[in-house]
Amino acid sequence: MSIFNTTDFERQGNIENDLLFESNEETCKAILTLSENTLRSLKIFTPDLEHKLYDNDQFIKNILSFVRGNRHAQVQILVSDISHSIKYGHRLLRLAQQLSSAMQIRITPEEYKETTISFIQLDQSNFIFKPDSSKQLAIQANCKNRSNSLLEFFTPAWDQAEKSPQSQIFHI
Fold this sequence. Notes:
Layout: H1 6-11, E1 19-21, H2 24-36, E2 41-46, H3 51-54, H4 57-68, E3 74-79, H5 83-87, H6 91-98, E4 103-107, E5 118-122, E6 126-130, E7 138-142, H7 144-160, E8 162-163
Parallel strand pairs: 2-3, 3-4
Antiparallel strand pairs: 1-7, 2-5, 4-8, 5-6, 6-7
């Protein structure tokens, strides 16, 4: 499944408690709050590691704390284009080097690269979803039904993805 139906996604499940964010600053604060309480897994689907959302000290500290506090912790990141992040030293790349047994970054398979969405899913129920990764609008929710839809989209993409040859330098 490479096409994600954002219209159906935004209408299914419990939408009454959704929080709507209209700026990257609001979205980043929500990501920081949710990531502080992650217990089992964290999955990110992003076109380019979205510097404004994921390249900050507090997010890195939250992931580090999460992984160190749980031997079964799992961080999976799918990114379409990693070259800009490598060039500018995105902190998630360095962290993936340090936490290689618990954290992996893979390149999104070709058939998924045209998808405009991006999201972070935490513990398979909480998520922040951007219908268009190039815009600032985002939705935060805790809805098992929609979270399962994200997981059904993410899992086959993850299974088909390969580690980036460019990111291999971080595993030496």
